[in-house]
Sequence to fold (179 residues):
Amino acid sequence: MRRTTLLAAAIAAILGCSEGCSDRPVPDVQRGDGQSGDVCEDDSECVDGAVCFNQVCVQEGLFRVSLSWSVVSDFDLHVVTPYGNEVSYATPSNDAGYLDVDDCVYGVCTDPSGVHVENIYFNAMAVPGTYRVYVMNFDGAAPGQYTVEVAGAVTQTWSGELPGIPNTSSVTYEFEFMP
Fold:
């Protein structure tokens, strides 16, 4: 069964409405064949161009920005490109950046007891300059710690904690991409 169908049904049950009533897109990810969002133990279990990050296959691209957390709350990863455009659940592609994994939509997580992952990757057309990154606790269902990892052509790691308050954002982190 497609992850989209499972998440859409869970969201509909929580919201008390039929499928499609949510204004948040639910990721279209097939489970079990090494695609983005699939469970993995190591990189060899992911398709070409993807790596295993916290036991989830994510696209790597030229560089990636990956978020992980373990509480059941809808943490969202936001990356603002040097052009000032954002890549997030609301705008899943912009300036050669693509959101390929979005776990815990409206507090419904693929594996409630596991580590949750969001991933944004940038391809070879990535814009040089300063990128800004922040994390938001969208639904505020629970407070929790998170880690953000930038990997590939740029490497950086940050950690923080978000309160259990809806739409609360972390500090903004920055990194430079200069090819």
The chain has a mean pLDDT of 86. The CA atoms of residues 13 and 57 lie 28 Å apart. The longest helix spans residues 3-15. Helices lie at 3-15.
